[in-house]
Amino acid sequence: MTTAAFGQPDGPQPPPETVLLQALRGDPGWIETLSLVAIRQERVVGHVVCTRGWVGDVAGLGLGPISVLPPHQRQGVGQALMHAIVGAADAAREPFIALLGDDHFYGRFGFTAASSLGIDAPDPAWGAHFQVRLLTDRPAALGGAFRYAAPFADM
User: Fold this and answer.
1) pTM higher than the cut 0.90
2) Of 142, 56, 149, nearest to 99 (Cα)?
């Protein structure tokens, strides 16, 4: 699924997102209940995952990758997956979700530039593309550097 969503005819096979997902599945940061799929006509057409991440000593979530099969892109599958993962994370009493992505797309789901919340991106060059969504059970104070699950460092 992820290979089909991210693969390029002249690019590496498998693409980095597939390698990352495989590594995350074997990492202690993997959270089975926060690996969600979208199904159409009994076929998986999309997937999103959140794994354990941290801001300082506060455990939260890092989102990604999110994948949608090319024939189903731009049809609301990614939006449905985002709504589902935010709801599932909130129901699981997680304090926040962090991600790297398009600020306009993810802004629709309540994500904001992490720097505006006092959270530093793993790579300062990410700027406003590194975003955080605070959830219901967030701590009173949250600030410092964000760390993804270990496999992200190998990307």
Assistant:
1) yes
2) 149
